[in-house]
Amino acid sequence: QWRNLLALCGSGLSLIFFSWFFLKPSLPTALLGLAAIALLAGSTFFFAPDGALLLRRLMPLLFVAAILLPYIRLPGGIPDLRPELLMVIVAGGLLLLDHLATGHPLRFRPSPAYKWFAFFAFAILLSTVYASTFKGQPISGRDLWELMKLALYFLIFFLVASKELSPRELKRYYLLLLILLLLSALFGFMQYINFAGVNQFISPHYAPSQMQGLLVHKRITGTTPNPNEFGALLVLASSLALSGALFFQEGRMRLFCWIALPVYLFALILTLSRTALISLFVSFLLLLSLFFKKRGFKRSFMRLFIVILLGCLIGLVILQFTPAKAFTRFGELTMFTQATSWQARVQNWETHYSLWRSSPWFGWGPGKVDMGTVVDNEWLLLLRRYGVVGLSLFLSLFGSIYLGLSRIVKRSEEAPAVALAVALKSTLIAYMVYMALAVVYHSLQLMPILLLSLGLAYTRWPPGRREAGY
Questions:
Q1: Pairwise pLDDT comparison (463 vs 213), residue with the higher score
Q2: Rounded Cα distance, 144 and 131, in Å
Q3: N or C: which terminus of the chain has fewer CB atoms within 10 Å of its end residue's CB?
Q4: Cα–Cα nearest to 92, from 45, 133, 42, 163
């Protein structure tokens, strides 16, 4: 009855929206229509006949939306929205309604990372109140978005990690993740050659502010807003492919990973992102060390030989197609301190560093009224906003997730769980390097993708569980 009532309400709201929109189109009616359609879709697709909310149907759509869909661009000063965040809000609301209407229990698997989300939220609130009370820093509605953002991040991780997935199901999601990232990389190739005029009709929806770099310098953005974020996404993709090639035992799965890996690597080169390239090397070095630690050097000697051989072959093939501009740009890494872009970053860092020193322990809060949000160093941005206390709690959140992945790697013998956890461990460290020059946490596309992947790994929490017949 509850499911039928939701369907009826969704249909009625959708009818009202379409009638009103044709008579008087406006932003509020567009948002109302979006909510109505989401309600209708949720009531008819995400609910089972007995009224239970099926998050299993939602998870693949979350991955598709996060990786392949562009931002929802809104007019005026309204921030752009991510479709997967809207889906998570709707799913959370439907889950609560399902519990209230049917009495289905809200089952979730405890995780040590949950409390650190709460602690970091407290740090954000503390910094905001402290800066307003003792430093005279004005507060705007945009500042409160930082708390809402963290709540949505937690909800993404919570919804996925709370599911009960078998190793076979986890392997299917691993494959889905690789395929979606492969489609994103292939779209980047289409941008590079401007296949069928894609840069005139489709690319502006993904990266409207990067079209000059795409058309003039051919820095592909893929399905992200800028080439640096796309490079960071491809670091995750490459780590997943290499980890799968090393840890999976099935020949077809390993072959697919080896085929996907050069595609990701070449797409990363076409982004011309030096930060992403450095992060990739960090990720690969850590991943190989974790592989030998897990399997032992003697047992893995032959696979090491294969990795080196295929790595050299892949490198030679990629070098044949690498544009000259990539060699020039990556060659600047040897004298990066002389680059004008580096000197501009240093000047920007000095400004925000001085601000942090005037409020070192609790920071200035988000400070969006009169402080810049582009710092070109996410660690410094977090330090200026939330001080030493907030940054320490943020690192504790990352550290808790990392230690959880370490336990999964150590205690699990299931290939999908180990491959995913190892890839994410190496990616987390690589992203910590990446955050010295760009953003991960404050990226509304990159961070949800990372949390979705982490949630997948945590579906095998606590580690060491075995599935019969696998």
A1: 213
A2: 14
A3: N
A4: 42
